[in-house]
Amino acid sequence: MSEQTPLLRTPLFDLHVELGAKMVPFAGYEMPVQYPLGVKKEHEHTREQAGLFDVSHMGQLKLKGAEAAAALETLVPVDIQDLPVGKQRYALFTNDQGGILDDLMVANLGEYLFVVVNAACKEQDIAHLRQHIGSRCEIEVLEDRALLALQGPKAVEVLARLNADVSKMIFMDAGRFTLLGEECLVSRSGYTGEDGFEISVPAHKAEALARELLAQAEVEFIGLGARDSLRLEAGLCLYGHDIDTTTTPFEASLLWAISKPRRADGERAGGFPGAEVILAQIASKEASRKRVGLIAEGRAPVREGTELVDADGKVIGQVTSGTFGPTKNAPVAMGYVHTAHAALGSEVFAMVRGKPQKMVVSAMPFVPQRYYRG
Predict the structure, then answer these.
(1) Nearest partner of 255 among 30, 38, 77, judged by Cα
(2) How close are the terminal C-alpha atoms of the chain, in Å?
(3) pLDDT tens-digit profile of 238-273?
(4) String of b and e for 102-113 (b: at least 16 CB within 10 Å)?
(5) Cβ atoms within 10 A of the Cβ of 16, count?
(6) Three-class DSSP category at 8
(7) pLDDT tens digits, 55-71
(8) Which intervals hold domain Aminomethyltransferase C-terminal (predicted)?
(9) Rounded Cα gap, residues 18 and 156, in angstroms
(10) How far is CA 303 from each of CA 295, 307, 324, rounded to the nearest angstrom?
(11) Which has the closest alpha carbon to 51: 225, 187, 173, 175?
(12) Cβ of 22: how many Cβ atoms within 10 Å?
């Protein structure tokens, strides 16, 4: 049996340990799952004030060159060529079967595209880019940067103390901003459903920036546990759980992530891997299953992997993410069900310890998103 690969550490590892974080393995890294405050209070603090998340395990890339946007557009079903400078878009890497290889963020910073990919998919995404578009643009992997997310209704007040210009940004704006004397790449976005920012900072400055933010009265460090409950209440997918290579954007209810020019009859339609499969599903409005939101009766959370059945006990789907939503004050989940059971208000049953627990197909997000749109 081979020795296990040692876990990687982010530039903030020592700070997490100093502040009493419980560290766990996640996507090849030692990451904080919670702090002494506890998952529920961390979740509530982010909804009420400002939470600071270390997401430095994510992959950060620059795509450079005159063809970078056109090249990237051959791998994703969103418009990259007309993405304005200073704006960011959510994108999907698809495969030839229409399945999702990863979800990612792409920002146009003028001289280059700044791309953030998921930690667990980082190596395969870089290989995918190099294989398919490496001859058309320069792909620079940013190894020496950390990534911090400051999320919550007080996030803008806090960050504006370090650079007042961030308060002029609206949701999905992105640009370069000086923080503590260092140029950082900042977007007004996040993974909690709240207003907030993601900040790419040189690794050597990450701890100083984190300490400066934590020194503000509104800010607490938040771990992976609350990050998961926050994103689930916000109806946001977790790659490898709610979306993967076997799910298409249509099945995953992610049609908004396919730009209209890429699915119309114009010259820019298609042109991405799996386009025939995905566009056929969109045209026919037919798929065997759909991703839906689910709210359970009672207080017990329904976890990932739980089978879903109909009133006759026939298996009709599976839960892909589930937890107790502290803000919703109810067990929330998402999963896939046969299309016949996907209508809002449909009753399905989760098989929890051999007993059916009623769940209702519900609209997402479960908690209203509060992105700042100006």
Answers:
(1) 77
(2) 56
(3) 999 999 999 999 999 999 999 999 987 777 889 999
(4) bbbbbbbbeebb
(5) 21
(6) strand
(7) 999 999 999 999 999 99
(8) 289-367
(9) 26
(10) 12, 10, 9
(11) 225
(12) 15
Question: Residue 83 gets which letter from DSSP?
Answer: P
- From the list 325, 262, 273, the residue with the least C-alpha distance to 294 is 325
Residue 1 scores a pLDDT above 70? no
Per-residue pLDDT, averaged over 139-148, amounts to: 98
Give the C-alpha separation, 138 to 146, whole Å. 21
pLDDT of 2 > 50? The answer is no
Q: How many angstroms separate the CA atoms of 296 and 322, rounded?
A: 10
Q: Are 87 and 108 in contact (CB under 8 A)?
A: yes
Cα(8)–Cα(122) distance, integer angstroms? 13
Percent of residues in the chain assigned helix, strand, coil, to nearest 5? 25, 35, 40
pLDDT band at 3 (very low <50, low <70, confident <90, very high): low
Ranges of beta strands (E only) in 18-58 are: 22-26, 29-34, 50-54
In angstroms, rounded to a whole number, what is the distance separating the alpha carbons of residues 67 and 58?
25
Q: With residue 288 as reference, give the H or E element that holds it.
A: none
* pLDDT tens-digit map of 150-195: 999 999 999 999 999 999 999 999 999 999 999 999 999 999 999 9
CB 200 within 8 A of CB 114: yes
Q: Quick count: other Cβ atoms within 10 Å of Cβ 220? A: 20
Backbone angles phi, psi at 101, to 5 degrees: -80, -30
Which residues is 24 bridged to in the sheet? 31
Which phi and psi angles does 324 have, rounded to 5°? Answer: -90, 125
Q: Which residue has the tokens 């919550």?
A: 152
